[in-house]
Amino acid sequence: MALINVKTREVQIKIVYYGPGRGGKTTNLEYINHTYRNQIKTEMVSLKTHDDRTLFFDFLPFDVGRIRGFDVTIQLYTVPGQVKYNATRRLVLRGVDGIVFVGDVQKELRKKNIESLNQLYENLETYNLDLFKIPLVMQYNKIDLRKSNIPILSSEVLQRDLNGLLRVPAFEASAVNGGNVIPTLKKIISITLASIQDQLL
Amino acid sequence: MESKVKGQDLNGLQTQITDIETLFKGNRHLEYLVKMIRAIAGYLTSRPDSAHEQTVLVLGTLVDELAILVESPGISPRAADEVLARALHSFKVFKSSIAVIPLVSEQDIQELKSVILSIDWEISDLTLQSFDTVVNRLMTKVKSNKIHSSFLKMMLSIGGYVARNKESSHRDALGVLRSVFQDYERMVRNPGMTIAEKKQLIRLDIQRFHEFKRELGRSPGKVAAPDSDVEEMMPALSHVKSSPSTTHGAPLRRLYDRGASSSHDLPDDQEITPALVGKKKGLTDSRDMMDDLFTARGSESDDLLDAIHLGGINGADQGRGMGLFETADDREERKQEGVKYFTPQRGEQEPIPEIESRLDEFFNLEFKEGEIEPALQALAPTLPDDQGSEPIVPFHYEDEIFEEDEVQFFAVNEDGDSGRSFTEDQGKENRIPVVMDRLKTFLISPDGLNHQVGLTDFTTDISVLEQEWQDDSEKRALLEMLTLLARHVHGIGKASSTVSGYDDADSSLGPRAVKGADSSIEDGEAGSTVEEEGNLQAPAAKGLWTRIRSMFRKP
To answer: Cα B143–B109–B194 angle (5° rounding)?
Structure first.
C-alpha cells in the first residue's frame, strides 16, 4: 500500500513486475536502470543464479520528483517467475500498489501466461487485494521475436487470454530493445498515482 | 555357513543348499525347511549389500531347526511338526519385515524430485545429465520390481526426449514427466498401497504416456502448434469472473506495424471459450507440484523468507524504513508520525496534469501524450478490428478503464489508513469522506461558489451530510452555518463588487489561503499552514472548519 507521509511530504509507491519465468521482467528493470542511470541515484539490487535467473527479486527504487508538493519515490520490484517460487512471489506482492504483468508472446508459453496471471489473482487475494481493482498494466513482451520467425501469439489472442476480463492498458513490448518499456512504466506509475492523488493535499 | 555368507561366498551357499535338497528329498519336513533356506539365500544373493540386517540371523535359525531334525532321526512326527512350525513362523516374520523395507528410500525420492525440478527450472546439459544419472541408479536398484521399473522407464524415456529436443520439446513433455513422477512418489510413499492399486496407477500413467507419444507423432514439428492451431484455452481469471466481452475496452498499444508481422501472427479464428464458468475453482490442476510446498499462508517458511529478504537484500532496517514489512505496532507508530497508508485502486479518475508532466519530465518524454515514442513512430500501428465486432482499442494515454456499472469513489478513513472503492449503493456513510473532501475544496478555493452550479453542488453535499447526521443537532448547526457562509460568498461573487468589511473574509478563503497552501508545500510543511494562514486573516472561517473536522475525526 502507498505510504503517504503528510509531515515529511513523501509518498512511496511499490510497483511489481509479475509474470512467467524468463518473460523479461528483469530486462525491463535493467533497461530502466540503464537508460535513466543519471536520474536514478540509487543502485538496482539484483540477486541472480549463475545463469542469470532472478533468485529472489530485483529492486530498483528511484525518485521522480515532486507532485503536489510531495516527493514521490517509486520502488520497482520483479518476482522470480519460476513456478516453484510462489512463496517469494507472494512475499514480494506484499504492500504492492501497482502491477505490470509481463506476458511472453511465445506461443509455447501461452498456458504459462494464463497460469501466472491466475496465480497472481490468488496471491493478491492472500493480502485481500483484488486484481480487478488494483492498478495494473499488461505488457506483451518479446514482440521482436516476430522477426526471428519464432512462433508468437498474436496480440488479439493475448488480449483475449489475459486482458479480456481485466481490460487494462496493454503494451506490446521488446524489453531487450527498450521498446515500450518506458511507456509501460509511465502508465503504471500514472494510474497508480492517479488513484492516490486525492490524498496528496 | 554364516562365515561363508559374511565372506560373500553366496555361490557356495547356493551349491550347498542344492546338495542338501537332493539329500533330503522325500522327507517332507526337511524339504520345507530347505525351501525356506533357499528362498532366504536367494534373497541374500540378489542384494548382498542391502539385504535386511536380520537375514543371516534368520538363516542361521532355519539351519539350526534343520539340524535338529537331521540330528534326531527318531523324532516324533508331532515334534517334527513343531520344529517346522517354528521355522515357518520365523520365515514368515522375516518375509513380512522384508516387505516393509521401502525399495526406494526417501532420499532417493528427494533426489529424483530435485533433478526433475531442475529440468523444469532449466533444460540444460547439466540438469539432464543429473536426471539421467539418478534415474539410472534407481533403475538398477529396482530392476527386480516391474512396477517401479516401469515408472522409471517412462521417466527415462521422457527425459531422453527432452534431452534430444531441449527447449524445442513439446510443451507438455515436462508436465507428463511431473505427472509420472507424482504418481511414482505417491506409490513409494504409500507402502500400504495394494498391488492392484499400484497397477491401476501405473496403467493410467502408461495410458497418458502413450497419448503423449501419439501427440508427438501428430505434431508436425518439434515446437508448439502454429497460431492457426491455437487450442481453445480458458482465458486467465475466467474462473473468478465472467464477461460477455473479451477484448472490448482493453486498450492495446502496439510496438510494430502489423504489416511487418509474419504469417505466424495471424489472428486466431477460434473462439476461446467465453469466461462464463461462473464458479470459482481451484487452480491445482495447473500448478506445479512444488507449489504445494509453499502454499501455507503466513507459514514459517514465509517468515523465513521475510527474514532472508530483509536481512539479505534490504538490510534489517531498510525493510522497516520502506514500510514494506512492518508489524502492526510499527504501523501504528508510523501513523502517529503522520504516515497514512492507502491502498490504490484503479478507477475512472484521470491523473492530474501535474502527474503526467512530472513523469514526462523525468523520463524525458518529449512526445505528446497518446503518441508513440519517436523512435518507434516509423512503425506506428494501424489497428485492425478484431474479427470485425470487437476491435482492440488503440492505446491512448487518455484511455482509462472502469467498471461500467459501478460509480467508484475513493474513501479514506479519517485516520487515513485505508482507501477503497465502493459503489453508490454501498451505504451513504462511505460517501462522507468524499463529500467532506469536496466541501473542503470549496472552502479552500471558494471561487466555485460564485457560480450557481458550484453553490448547488455545495448545498447538495451539505444536504447529504444533514441527512446523514440528522440526529446530531450540533453537526447540523455547523452545516447550516456552512450553508449560510457559502450563500454569502456566492452573493459577494454575484455582486462582483468589493464591499468594505467583506474583503478580508473573502480573501481568506480564496487566494490568500491558496497561497498559504502553496507556500506550505514549498516549505515542506503539513497542510496545517492553510489553517494558520486562515486564522490570521479570517478567524471565523478557520475556526469553523477546524471545528467541523474535529467533530468528524475519529477519537
So the answer is: 65
Torsion of CA A107, A108, A109, A112, to 10 degrees: 130
Beta-bridge mates of residue A103: A140
Give residues with Cβ within 8 angstroms of A124, minimum separation 6.
A93, A96, A130, A131, A134
Contact status, residue B382 vs residue B257, Cβ threshold 8 Å: yes
Q: Do A155 and B354 touch (CB under 8 A)?
A: no
3-state SS assignment for residue B226: coil
* Domain limits for position A21: 3-199
Query: How many interchain CB pairs under 8 A, A with B?
Result: 336
CB contact under 8 A, B230 and A157: yes
State how many domains chain A has. 1
What is the sign, positive or negative, of the torsion defined by CA atoms of B432, B433, B437, B438? negative
Beta-bridged to residue A16, according to DSSP, are A77, A99
β-strand partners of B252: A170, B394
Q: Are B410 and B419 in contact (CB under 8 A)?
A: yes
Residue B62 has what pLDDT?
87
The interface residues of chain A toward chain B in range 72-91, judged by CB-CB distance below 8 A, are: 72, 75, 82-88, 90-91
Phi, psi of B94 (to 5 degrees): -65, -45
Of B236, B344, B362, which has the smallest distance from its Cβ to A64's Cβ?
B362
Beta strands in B130-272 (DSSP E): 252-253
User: Residue A2, by phi and psi: left (phi above 0), alpha (psi -120 to 50) or beta?
Assistant: beta
- Tens of pLDDT, residue by residue over B474-516, are 777 788 778 888 877 777 665 544 333 333 333 333 333 333 3
Q: Give the distance from residue A27's alpha carbon to the nearest chain B alpha carbon, in angstroms.
A: 17
CB contact under 8 A, B355 and A136: no
- B67 close to A (CB below 8 A): no
* The three three-digit cell numbers of residue B428, written as one number: 451513504
Are B247 and A160 within 8 A, CB to CB?
yes
pTM to 2 decimals? Answer: 0.44
User: Taking every pair of C-alpha atoms in chain A, what is the biggest distance, in angstroms?
Assistant: 56
**Inter-chain contact B275–A165, Cβ cutoff 8 Å?**
yes
Q: Is the pLDDT of residue B327 over 70?
A: no
DSSP string, B11-70: HHHHHHHHHHHHHTTT-HHHHHHHHHHHHHHHHHHH-TTT--TTHHHHHHHHHHHHHHHH
CATH number of the structural domain spanning residue A10: 3.40.50.300
Whether A94 contacts A75, CB under 8 Å: no
- Answer yes or no: is pLDDT of A160 > 60: yes
Distance from CA of B170 to the nearest CA of A (A): 8
Inter-CA distances, B456 with A183, B49, B402, B495, B496, Å:
40, 94, 27, 18, 19
Q: How far apart are the first and last CA of chain A?
A: 18
Interface contact A127, partner B, CB < 8 A:
no
Using the predicted structure, report yes or no on whether residue B20 has a pLDDT greater than 70: yes
Q: Is B283 helix (H, G, I), strand (E, B) or coil?
A: coil
Using CA atoms in the order B269, B275, B277, B279, what is the torsion angle rounded to 10 degrees?
Answer: 160
Quick one: closest CA in B to A46, which residue? Answer: B313
